């Protein structure tokens, strides 16, 4: 466990800091070409970040070490990864990563809203104004993603609900039944980190890609901040779909609840779920108590055990 934690943390931190540390080399190699830096660079960085974020969890899914079992959010083997299930998901995942993602990158490039200044001040040379400006930009980016992610996913659920019930009404068979395990195709497949981008291409474009890219565009952020943000967003969504709640990692409890009770927990931060009342069952359950980052090796399910039903 300790080895996995150290290696994965080193990978994540290295990737997170790389845009800033490598910026001078990237700008020099691209010779100031906006297309190469923003479009090609964003594609390369997005794919690289996605792969790095998933490698540690792919190991957990296939090696299935004994130490990780107590950290599984859902008990049982029905959602565990098999090679067949993994391959079935891979084609759509590859399409979304290699086709839909670059389309979003092109939109970002054409928007002209990303700052591509070649020279950046050293971290130690930042003024108070620079620090405040970065903080405001980052806050704006996070809030834009929260709004985009929440409302697009809630709209997606609404459309699916209407389609399903229209189909049922139109059916002449009284024995017709429909089972819906959640708004995300991965619910019928596996609980695995790679399924963070396993969605219909339109859903992936409007619910996953655009909310993440819209923030940097609206805030006019520098491409280094945009790439750093993309890395953070990819890491967070990877953890949220992993099926694990590990120490020192963001909690996946809320999004896991969303895949079980698909009418709740549409957002990332939970702010809009709270304001719109779309997390009431979640708030009343034990998963809400577990929904935090913890810093001990004791599994959170041991700290907050399941509530026994009478």
UniProtKB/TrEMBL annotation:
<dbReference type="GO" id="GO:0000254">
    <property type="term" value="F:C-4 methylsterol oxidase activity"/>
</dbReference>
<dbReference type="GO" id="GO:0005789">
    <property type="term" value="C:endoplasmic reticulum membrane"/>
</dbReference>
<dbReference type="InterPro" id="IPR050307">
    <property type="entry name" value="Sterol_Desaturase_Related"/>
</dbReference>
<protein>
    <submittedName>
        <fullName>Drd-1</fullName>
    </submittedName>
</protein>
<dbReference type="GO" id="GO:0016126">
    <property type="term" value="P:sterol biosynthetic process"/>
</dbReference>
């Amino acid at each position: 466990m300790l080895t996995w934690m150290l290696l994965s943390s080193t990978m994540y931190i290295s990737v997170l800091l790389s845009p800033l540390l490598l910026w001078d080399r990237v700008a020099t190699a691209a010779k100031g070409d906006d297309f190469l830096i923003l479009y090609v660079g964003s594609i390369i960085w997005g794919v690289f970040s996605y792969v790095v974020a998933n490698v540690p969890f792919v190991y957990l899914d296939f090696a299935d070490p004994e130490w990780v079992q107590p950290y599984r959010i859902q008990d049982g083997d029905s959602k565990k990864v098999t090679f067949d299930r993994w391959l079935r998901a891979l084609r759509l995942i590859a399409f979304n990563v290699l086709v839909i993602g670059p389309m979003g990158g092109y939109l970002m490039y054409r928007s002209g809203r990303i700052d591509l200044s070649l020279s950046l001040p050293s971290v130690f040379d930042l003024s108070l104004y620079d620090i405040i400006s970065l903080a405001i930009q980052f806050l704006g980016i996070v809030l834009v993603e929260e709004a985009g992610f929440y409302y697009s996913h809630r709209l997606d659920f609404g459309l699916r609900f209407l389609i399903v019930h229209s189909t049922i009404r139109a059916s002449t068979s009284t024995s017709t039944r429909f089972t819906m395990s959640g708004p995300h195709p991965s619910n019928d497949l596996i609980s695995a980190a790679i399924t963070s981008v396993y969605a219909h291409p339109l859903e992936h474009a409007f619910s996953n890609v655009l909310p993440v890219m819209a923030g940097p565009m609206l805030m006019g952020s520098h491409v280094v901040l945009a790439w750093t943000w993309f890395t953070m967003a990819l890491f967070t969504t990877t953890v949220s779909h992993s099926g694990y709640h590990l120490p020192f990692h963001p909690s996946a409890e809320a999004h896991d609840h969303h895949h079980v009770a698909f009418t709740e927990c549409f957002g990332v931060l939970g702010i809009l779920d709270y304001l719109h009342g779309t997390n009431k069952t979640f708030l009343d359950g034990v998963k809400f108590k577990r929904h935090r980052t913890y810093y001990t090796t004791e599994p959170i399910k041991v700290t907050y055990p399941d509530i026994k039903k009478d």
